[in-house]
Amino acid sequence: MGNRRNLFVYTPASYARGDARYPVIYMQDGQNLFDAATSFAGDWGLKTALAWASRRGLEAIVVGIPNMGAARIDEYAPFRDPKVGGGAGERYLDYLINTVKPLVDQRFRTVPDRAHTGIGGSSLGGLISLYAYFRYPSVFGFAAALSPSLWFANAAILDVVEQAPRAAGRVYLDVGLQEGDTHVMEAVDLDPAAVQVLAEDAGTMHPAIRPFGEAAQRCGKHKHTRSAVT
Prior knowledge:
Elements: E1 8-10, E2 24-28, H1 46-55, E3 61-65, H2 72-76, H3 89-107, E4 117-122, H4 124-135, E5 142-146, H5 152-155, H6 157-163, E6 170-174, H7 181-199, E7 207-208, E8 228-229
Helix pairs in contact: 6-7
C-alpha cells in the first residue's frame, strides 16, 4: 500500500491461560475501536462488548487495522465514485489477506479457516467489509457491516452481491432510519440479493427493521441505536 501502520490486536482473557485457538475478526478503522484518545468520535466500547460475549462463551481475537486518514476513502472503496474518488479497495484487501492475515496467523493462536475468519466495519469500513465477504468467500466466512456506505459509486455493491459465488456464511448489516430514506432503501434492496446468495448454502439472513437509529459516524457508541437489516 506504500505506507506503514501499527495493528491493534485484542486477545480474550483466556488466551493467556492455555493453548486454545480462536476465531479472528478483522475490523476497519482500528484506531476507533478501543481507545477514545485515538478515535474519531469516541471509541466503540468494543472491549466491554467482547468481555460480555466472553462471559457467554463467545471469544475471538480482534485485529483492528487503522485507516490512513486522507487515504481512507481510497482504501475502503472498491469502486471509483466520480464525486468522491476511491477505487483502491482491491489493493487494500490484498494487503489485508496476503500481508496482515498471514502475520496474525503466524504470531497468534488462530483458527485460520474461513468459517472462523470474519471482517467488519462501519460506513466505508462497512462497505469494504461487505465487499470482501462476497468477493473473497474462500477467506471470510462472516461479516458485519454497520451503516455501510451502500450508496457509494451508484450503489455498485448491489451488483457485486448479486453476482457473488454461492457460499455458506453469516452477515450482520444494520442501517439507522435517521440516515435517510435512500440509505435505508438501498439496504432493503441489498437484502433480497444477499438472501438469495446465502440461503442456497444454508446461510442466514433475518430482516428486522426497527424505527430508531442514526449513522455510525454520527454516534460514537452506536451499536444499540440502529435499525437492523440482517
